[in-house]
Amino acid sequence: MKNTTKLVRLLLIVSSFSIVILVFLKAVQPKDCLSFTVYEVNDGWGYDIQCEEETVIHQPFIPAVPGFNAFNSEDKARETAQFVIKKLRQKRSPQLTVADLKDLNVIE
After folding, report:
1. How many domains does the chain have?
2. E strands of the chain, at which residues?
3. b or e along 53-92 (b: 16 or more beta carbons within 10 Å of the residue's beta carbon)?
């Protein structure tokens, strides 16, 4: 009986400690501050990525390709901005490649 009581107490202590650690880790995680806006430029569309209303990426043209060509549709600019935010949330570089742009159907 004493061993069972000790085991139950130990399990309660470990469980309580685990819950405290989980609550603490959840509380100290950085909040997701990323958002985007899509805007019109002279010959198409661009996007900005913001964190707490501060622009951290200003992209008025298609990256990773020569020249300064704007996105040809609002949807393509929006999808690209969403992809960049996804990469940032995965703690990856926001840099886009030609392959990324082809996968997003931004370029052929």
Report:
1. 2
2. 34-41, 44-51, 54-59
3. eeeebebbebbeeeeeebbeeeebbbbbbebbbeebeeee
Give the confidence band of 4 by pLDDT, cuts at 50, 70, 90: confident
Question: What order do you get walking across the sheet with 54-59 strand by strand?
Answer: 34-41, 44-51, 54-59
Q: Which domain range does residue 23 map to?
A: 1-30
Residues 54 and 9 in one domain: no
- How many helices (H) does the chain have, and how many strands (E)? 3, 3
pLDDT of 94:
94
Residues 68, 98: one domain? yes
What is the average per-residue pLDDT within 68-76? 96
